[in-house]
Amino acid sequence: MAIVDVNEPFLLSTRDGNLSQVRHVVLVLSGKGGVGKSTITTELALALRHAGKKVGILDVDLCGPSIPHMLGVGRPDVHQCDSGWVPVYTDPQKGLALMSIGFLLEDPDDAVVWRGPKKTAMIAQFVSDVAWGELDVLLVDTPPGTSDEHLAVLENLKKHRVDGAVLVTTPQAVSTGDVRREITFCKKTGVRILGIIENMSGFVCPHCSECSNIFSKGGGEELAKLTGSTFLGAVPLDPLLSGAMEEGADFIRSFPGSASFSAISTISRTLLCDLEGT
Q1: Sequence-ordered list of residues with C-beta below 8 angstroms from that of 164, at least 6 positions apart, any chain
Q2: 81 vs 1: CA distance, rounded Å
Q3: Helical segments of 23-74, H only
Q4: Most CB atoms within 10 A, among 10, 27, 82, 126?
Q5: Is the dihedral of CA 259, 261, 263, 266 positive or negative?
Q6: Which pTM value belongs to this model?
């Protein structure tokens, strides 16, 4: 198998079948940066994996590819096979697959200084050329906002059904206001809103486990009510979760007694029931 070189020109692919065995595609969106969208994507993927599902993450946050670090997979070479690019698997059972531009950069400190057309071509290649194989759920982690990257993802997923989007916000009005615009984007582009997650909803003390509302509370739930969207749940700020993300550890496996584990598990079950119509 050949090794992929990010410095080579991106060629638009004619492959249509690499998503044919993917049952569900879910976009993870946020109108604002810094709300923990990539953390939520990672934890949802792990929760679904532990529920026995085969999961993939497509990381199209080209300028901030943090998920490889969160999953502790390092920077392995990406290889090509006859079907396209081979994703990086996080476990020997190949239950969780990941593709990210973080794997293609020569230096992890390199900045991706690209104009729109090159970003669009990279995303087109990610969507069409990754040989995912059989997956129950593919989560697409997007950058903040409603710009070229989001339109490129939707344009290139036209031939494959997108089940909908999960929107991530923090409780404050400054965040929910931006997510309201993301809801408008979904309505204009015909993307079904699967639900809203309120992240950083209170702080869990590592000593007594009491939850304090540092960033207020309830903004995401109120936004869901105002927009007629499903409120999937609230995930608190949790030092155990933050530490697991820093170390690339499996939080779901390591801390089953934490408040964050309970919230993420409930959200993942609700989302899976929606996707599978149960």
Answers
A1: 26, 27, 191, 192, 193, 194
A2: 5
A3: 37-50, 67-70
A4: 27
A5: negative
A6: 0.90
